[in-house]
Amino acid sequence: HVQLVESGGGSVQAGGSLRLSCTASGVSDNKYCVAWFRQTPTGEHWPVAAGDNDGGTDYADAVKGRFAISRDQSKNTWYLKMNILKPEDTSMYYCAADLRRGCYASVRRFSPGAWGQGTQVTVS
Question: Do residues 96 and 110 touch, judged by C-beta distance below 8 A?
Answer without folding.
Answer: yes
